[in-house]
UniProtKB/TrEMBL annotation:
Keywords: Glycerol metabolism, Hydrolase, Signal. Its EC number is 3.1.4.46. CDD domains: GDPD_ScGlpQ1_like. Transmembrane segments: none annotated. Residues 1-23 form the signal peptide. Belongs to the glycerophosphoryl diester phosphodiesterase family. The gene is glpQ. PANTHER family: GLYCEROPHOSPHODIESTER PHOSPHODIESTERASE GDPD5-RELATED, GLYCEROPHOSPHORYL DIESTER PHOSPHODIESTERASE. It comes from Sphingobium indicum (strain DSM 16413 / CCM 7287 / MTCC 6362 / UT26 / NBRC 101211 / UT26S). The keyword Hydrolase applies. This is glycerophosphodiester phosphodiesterase. GO terms for biological process: glycerol metabolic process; lipid metabolic process. InterPro entries: GP_PDE_dom (IPR030395), PLC-like_Pdiesterase_TIM-brl (IPR017946).
Length: 348
């Protein structure tokens, strides 16, 4: 059995790493910088976004939450104890609290309990210091950016480089925020429109793990939308729906009624035994496939691509990128946009 498993892994690696890194249209998958170049700078900082742009990322991805005064800011979660120095601020000790977010109990400090001015007194920290100790040297340097500051950065870098740079915002916990009187939709669409992003021709994708806000965005906007999905569970705003059901042929046709693509976990398109067929089903439904999230560390890689003896704790990232690309996906999220691009275009 062990030998059979090893042979299957060898055959999979041989087939997939030899496959051309092209989508079904013949184009190379585009690279989305996941929270910026978050493998090299603390995530969701202007420094991480700018580094990703300088490394050639096609799109940068800010996760968006709101402040108590209704400003969109970039944090992976509205609970910020793991990504900022808020716990070191005695003036905010009393703000620590417990809430239920999407049915899960969470304790800490939450963006919706701070004004933008108060959040600006905090500084970002590396979220994964054990895996990315080099990033910790930037702790305390960068404030939490607003979405508008990110858009302005993109516009400035476009003027500097002469190339379009895409925006790929995610609405985080939109039903929760709408329930407390802080909906994403109006400030998000208003800001994008103000900076000239209004149609499907503009380099913008708006993504969400929920369904209701995507349908509302579809009714209000021509910008492209992506339904995020995971290997387990379902949308927080539709407790009777599972992501598994949404990824059937019938479910994908229903998603295509309001979205332009899906954003599945990479394991949903590439299993240990090979491609799962999800990419083909999605394409047949007229949907793009943008997979998340490709990282270099062994702890995030499938067993077949891990290198336990690597001193940096990193695996065969290039091989994994090419294997995922070989399934025909249209785009890939990565914490390491430079290395992902190099994997698709290896030096001769």
């Amino acid at each position: 059995m062990i030998l059979r498993g090893m042979l299957r892994t060898f055959l999979l690696l041989t087939l997939l790493t030899a496959a051309p890194a092209m989508t079904e249209t013949g184009a190379e998958p585009f690279i989305i910088a996941h929270r910026g170049a978050s493998g090299e700078r603390p995530e969701h900082t202007l420094a991480a976004y700018e580094r990703a742009i300088d490394q050639g990322a096609d799109y940068i991805e800010p996760d968006l939450v709101l402040t108590s005064d209704g400003v969109l800011v970039a944090r992976h979660e509205n609970e910020i104890s793991g990504t900022t120095d808020v716990a070191d601020h005695p003036e905010f000790v009393a703000r620590r609290t417990s809430k239920t977010i999407d049915g899960q109990p969470v304790t800490g400090w939450f963006t919706e309990d701070f004004t933008l001015a108060e959040l600006r007194t905090l500084r970002a920290r590396e979220r994964l210091p054990q895996l990315r100790p080099a990033n910790s040297r930037f702790d305390g340097l960068y404030p939490i950016p607003t979405f508008e500051e990110i858009v302005k950065l993109v516009r400035a870098k476009e003027a500097e480089t002469g190339r379009r740079i895409g925006l790929y915002p995610e609405t985080k916990h939109p039903a929760y925020f709408a329930g407390i009187g802080l909906p994403h939709q109006a400030p998000l669409l208003d800001l994008l429109s103000r900076y000239g992003y209004q149609t499907e021709a503009d380099p913008v994708f708006i993504q969400s793990f929920e369904v209701g806000n995507l349908k509302a965005l579809r009714a209000a906007s021509r910008l492209r939308l992506i339904q995020l999905v995971a290997g387990e569970g379902g949308p927080a705003d539709e407790p009777g729906t599972s992501y598994a059901d949404m990824m059937t042929a019938q479910g994908l046709r229903q998603v295509a009624d309001y979205a332009d693509g899906i954003g599945p976990a990479a394991a949903m398109v590439l299993a240990p035994e090979g491609p799962t067929g999800l990419v083909e089903r999605a394409h047949q439904a007229g949907l793009q496939v943008h997979v998340w999230t490709l990282r270099m560390e062994n702890s995030f890689l499938p067993a077949a691509f891990q290198r336990p003896d690597d001193p940096q704790g990193r695996g065969d990232f290039a091989g994994y990128v090419r294997a995922v690309a070989g399934t025909g996906v249209d785009a890939m999220f990565s914490d390491f946009p430079k290395q992902a691009r190099q994997a698709l275009n290896p030096a001769p």
